[in-house]
């Protein structure tokens, strides 16, 4: 299941939603949108609400995060193999999302 399919799922769990919002927020920042952009503000507000929910980062959350990282790395490898350079916006977006996942995983430890 791709991240797009995950976002479109009608049966999205709260953990899936949190991961999706975290990654969309990172992608928005990577694309050059500033903190005052309406899209970024909306994602940040939703992220703040979701992050405050008790026991939000369950085993399911960490599994979804790990699976998302795997999918992003596959996407990155595919785009790189197609010749996209390190400064391409899509490459920057994926790298930012992987970076966010790495930070979150370090918080777990």
Task: Tell me what you see in this structure.
- The chain has 109 residues and is mainly α.
- Helices cover 73% and strands 0% of the residues.
- The protein has helices at residues 3-8, 14-30, 38-51, 59-81, 89-108.
- α2 (14-30) runs parallel beside α4 (59-81).
- It starts with a helix and ends with a helix.
Question: Can you give the mean pLDDT?
Answer: 88
Based on secondary structure, the structural category is mainly alpha
Strand content of the residues, in percent? under 5%
| Biggest beta sheet attributes | none
* Low-pLDDT windows of residues: 1-8
**Shape designation:** globular
Helices and strands, in N-to-C order?
HHHHH
Query: What is the CA-CA span between the terminal residues?
Result: 27 Å
Any idea what the radius of gyration is?
Answer: 14 Å
- Kindly state the number of beta strands: 0
Number of helices: 5
What percent of residues adopt helix (DSSP H or I)? over 70%
Secondary-structure map with pairings?
Blueprint lengths: L2 H6 L5 H17 L7 H14 L7 H23 L7 H20 L1
Helix pairs in contact: 2-3, 2-4, 2-5, 4-5
């Amino acid at each position: 299941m791709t991240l797009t399919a995950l976002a479109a799922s009608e049966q999205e769990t709260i953990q899936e939603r949190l991961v999706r919002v975290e990654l969309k927020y990172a992608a928005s920042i990577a694309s050059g949108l500033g903190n005052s952009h309406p899209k970024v503000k909306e994602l940040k507000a939703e992220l703040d609400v979701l992050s405050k929910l008790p026991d939000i980062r369950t085993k399911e959350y960490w599994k979804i995060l790990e699976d998302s990282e795997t999918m992003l790395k596959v996407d990155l490898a595919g785009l790189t193999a197609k010749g996209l350079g390190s400064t391409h916006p899509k490459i920057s977006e994926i790298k930012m999302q992987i970076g966010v996942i790495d930070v979150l995983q370090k918080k777990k430890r």
